[in-house]
Amino acid sequence: MLSYALRRIAGLIPTLLVIITVSFCVVRLAPGGPFDQEQALPPAVRANLERLYGLDQPLAVQYVHYLRGLLRGDFGPSLRQRDFTVSELVAQGLPLSATLGLAAILLAVLSGIPAGILAALWRNRGADYCITTLAALALALPSFVTGPLLALVFGLYLRWLPVAGWQHGAPRYLVLPVLTLALPVAAYVARLTRASLLEVLNAHYVRSARARGLGTPRVLWRHALRPALMPVVSYLGPAVAFVMTGSLVIETVFGLPGTGRYLVEGAIDRDYPLVMGMIVVYGALTLFLNLIADLIYGWLDPGVRHA
Amino acid sequence: MPEQAVAAARGLWSDAGRRLTGNRIASAALAVMVVMALFAVLAPHLSPWGYDSLDWEHLALPPGLTAAHWFGTDRLGRDLFVRTLYGVRLSLFISVLASLVSLVIGVVWGAVAGLAGGRTDGWMMRFVDVLYSLPYLFIVIILTTLWRRGSIAVLLLALGAVGWLTTARIVRGQALALRRREFIEAARALGVPAPAILLRHIVPNLLGPVLVYATLTVPQMIVFESFLSFLGLGVQEPHASLGNLILTGAQEMESAPWMLLVPAAFLVGLLICLNFLGDGLRDAFDPRER
Known about the structure:
heterodimer; A: mainly alpha; 12 helices; flat; B: 290 residues; mainly alpha; 0% strand; elongated
């Protein structure tokens, strides 16, 4: 187990390096610069600014310099939001984005697995059709459609919940965003659970458990559920990535002050360190959480470790 | 030998066609899709209004069959029916083209890797793995923002560059399996050069699963495109895309909910039809999947 974990962790470093290099190239080779404004700056001021931020040096030097900074945990200063470093900006927004994402995953797992179990147990009956149809619908709809629609129904017509805003994390304001974010993930979890449980319920050991006279709850709990949930565990990694990019939309739709807006704003302003910082933080987080999901999977299913 | 392979392929295709028309949901989805696509193509001729023509007499008019504008108008008095159809048109155009781009790259990459095998295969698929781990939506956002915002060519390129990875994986798996089949071995023994084997024998046999995946790629591309337009990075005003229509609709939903509901309904319809069609095609080509 330990050597498997170490091998996987070692595999992260080159991947992260590729992410950093590719995005550095994409960001820096694009036309335009951070100091292009309506009114052109005097050449001397511009040259001074560029020297201050090291933008006058060759790209390769800047790249090495950036990597060195990253090793020290320094993402550099924001070029547009003066007086703030990228680390400060990310640290301000990340707790909210992380709360949203974690709550959404939790909600999705807690609602998707029971829904999938019900659908599998009542296969080809009313409840199953209801659940599978709802899941198909939830999977087909992007969150920038479901978000405004939910806000319209629950916020404007029923007036149960606030439409948007956030009031420093009052839970009422987070219900709709979390729900929107969780919906497609819950649908996918339900589908996976249904499909794999149906398969497991046909397995010989489950049939022999039934033959021994065990009731459905006991068969589920003792024998069927654990192997049936393996695909769900391995989906958690991609789900995390999905939720993290999804929170970008959710924050725009519901007007939440997370980190999502920095990516778009930073790209429009050519705020190089801010854009790079966002990509590196989100890329590293995604890789790390994927790794954790893989390790849990390897722990549950020893066969994977030696593959 | 090639004649026989072609005959077998025809059998597969007509078989799949029969199964698809037998599937009621998929046929209905196909019919709705065709109607929508027709409407979208004919959009300029269906209404006296253009996508950017203003009707000062009817600003933010609610929808109604007897009204001057069936689906109402937006704040500037632009006909929502026409704008939505233009949005569908643009979404379909961009997503189909982007799917084609990703299809071509993916098929070539996957087939070459699968056929070559060994170390070449290892490196090519390792490259795909690494690209998979990139936060691709971020890269698309960066690409479209930094390089000429709103340019359809950049949008296409960015979407196509993202979509080919899964196709490459599917194709490679199929090619690996095909490589060991007797007819490929026979062709090789007869001295047919590798590129000819690729084009005559491998690619035609791959088309089924690839076609299925491609129909499932189109709705993904529609979502990506409207997502970018929703963030204000894709199609720009006064041009209409489902994404930027939904964005405006979401901002105006308190006073004019139809501005959100009309484009959202079209997007939802489009996505659901495409998904059902893709599922139907998958069942048609691989009945075991059921």
